[in-house]
Design brief:
14 helices, 363 residues
Length: 363
C-alpha cells in the first residue's frame, strides 16, 4: 500500500499547453460575447464609465478616506452633469433634428440641380449607352452603400430591443458603474492573483501596455471629441449655418472615428450651406471652422491629450469600429477599441518574440 502511495507521489501532474489553453479561452470568450450581446450594453457602458473615472476615484478616495463615499460623490456629479447637459440641449437638438430631416429632400434637389450640368456634359461626350451604364453603376453603388448604412443603423438602434436597452441604460448602468468603480482595485487584484505565476511578469507588462493604449485613446480621445464638438458647434452657429449646433456636436462625436467623422461632418455642413446660401463666402467660413478645428486638434489637442501612447493605426480603429457595429451593434462599438487595443498589443508582443526566435535570426 505504501509502495502505491510512493509511486503515486512521483507521478507529475499533466501540464496544459499554454497556447491551447489561451486559444480555447479566447474562442469561448468571443462566443459568449456574441451570444450575450443583446444584454451586455448596460454592463459594458457601466464598465466604460468605471474605467474612465477610476483615476479620479483614486484621488478623491485619498481625500475622503472612503472608496464608497468617493464613488458615490463622483458618480452623482458625473450623471448630474450628463443629465444637465442633456436637458439643456435636448429642446434645441430636437428642433434641429426635425428641421434637418425635413430639409433633406431640398438638399437632394439642390444637389441634383448642381450636378445636372455635369451629367449633361458627360452625356454629350460619352454618348447615351456609356452614360446609362455610368448611371446604373452609380445607382447600384449608392444603393449598396445605403443598404449597408441602414443595416448598421438598424443593428445599432433597433434590433427589436430599443426600449429595453433604453430602460437598462437608465436604471441598470448606473448601478453597474457604482459597484465596478467601488470595487475596481479589488477586482484588479483578484485578476492579478489568478495569473499563471510562471508568466506573471510578462502578462503584467502586456496588461500595462493595454491599459496605456486604452487609456490614451478612450480617455484622451473622448476629451478631444468633446472639445472639437464645442468648437464646431460654436463656429457653425456663429456663422449662421442652419442646424450648426447639431452638425457641430455630431461631428465632434464622430471624431472618435479618425478622419472619417470630420469628413462626414464637413460634407453635411457643405450640403446645408448649399441649400441655405447663394454665395461663396459662407462655404469659405464653413471650411475655415473645420480647418481651425483640425489644426487645433493636430497641433495641441491630440498631442497633449492622446499623445503617442496609443499605437493604433487609424485604419485599424475604423475597421474595428465597423466590425463591432456590424456584429454586436452599439455594444460592439463600445468594445471595438478595447479589443483592438488588446489585439494590437498581443500582435506587437508576438512580433517581438518572433524577432528573437530562431525563425527570424536563423541562429
Amino acid at each position: 500500500m505504501n509502495g502505491d502511495n510512493d509511486l503515486g507521489s512521483h507521478i507529475a501532474p499533466q501540464r496544459l499547453n499554454p497556447l491551447w489553453f489561451w486559444s480555447c479561452g479566447l474562442v469561448l470568450f468571443m462566443g459568449l460575447l456574441y451570444i450575450l450581446s443583446g444584454v451586455l450594453m448596460p454592463f459594458v457602458t457601466g464598465l466604460a464609465v468605471a474605467y474612465f473615472l477610476d483615476p479620479l476615484a483614486d484621488r478623491v478616495e485619498a481625500v475622503l478616506k472612503s472608496r464608497s463615499a468617493a464613488t458615490a460623490l463622483i458618480l452623482l456629479t458625473f450623471f448630474a452633469m450628463v443629465v444637465g447637459v442633456g436637458v439643456a440641449l435636448f429642446p434645441l437638438l430636437q428642433s434641429q433634428v426635425t428641421g434637418l430631416i425635413t430639409s433633406i429632400p431640398h438638399v437632394v434637389d439642390a444637389a441634383r440641380i448642381l450636378v445636372q450640368p455635369i451629367f449633361e456634359r458627360l452625356q454629350a461626350q460619352l454618348g447615351a449607352d456609356e452614360m446609362q451604364a455610368l448611371k446604373d453603376n452609380a445607382g447600384a453603388f449608392a444603393g449598396g452603400v445605403m443598404a449597408w448604412l441602414g443595416a448598421v443603423l438598424k443593428s445599432l438602434f433597433l434590433g427589436g430591443k430599443a426600449f429595453i436597452n433604453t430602460l437598462s441604460m437608465l436604471f441598470i448602468m448606473p448601478v453597474v458603474a457604482f459597484f465596478l468603480l467601488r470595487d475596481w482595485d479589488a477586482l484588479v487584484s483578484k485578476v492579478d492573483d489568478l495569473l499563471p505565476r510562471t508568466s506573471v511578469v510578462t502578462i503584467r507588462q502586456q496588461f500595462r501596455e493595454i491599459d496605456a493604449t486604452i487609456a490614451g485613446f478612450v480617455r484622451g480621445q473622448a476629451t478631444v471629441c468633446l472639445a472639437l464638438g464645442v468648437i464646431y458647434a460654436t463656429g457653425l452657429t456663429l456663422i449662421g449655418l442652419d442646424f450648426g449646433l447639431l452638425i457641430g456636436l455630431g461631428t465632434g462625436l464622430m471624431a472618435f472615428v479618425p478622419y472619417v467623422g470630420m469628413l462626414i461632418g464637413l460634407l453635411i455642413a457643405f450640403g446645408v450651406a448649399l441649400m441655405q446660401f447663394n454665395e461663396v463666402t459662407p462655404f469659405i467660413m464653413v471650411a475655415a471652422v473645420f480647418g481651425f478645428g483640425q489644426s487645433l486638434d493636430a497641433a495641441f489637442l491630440t498631442p497633449n491629450l492622446v499623445g503617442g501612447r496609443v499605437g493604433l493605426h487609424p485604419v485599424w480603429i475604423i475597421f474595428a469600429l465597423m466590425t463591432g457595429a456590424a456584429l454586436l451593434g452599439f455594444t460592439g462599438v463600445l468594445l471595438a477599441v478595447p479589443l483592438a487595443s488588446v489585439i494590437g498589443v498581443l500582435v506587437r508582443f508576438s512580433i517581438g518574440r518572433y524577432r528573437e526566435s530562431v525563425l527570424y535570426t536563423g541562429v
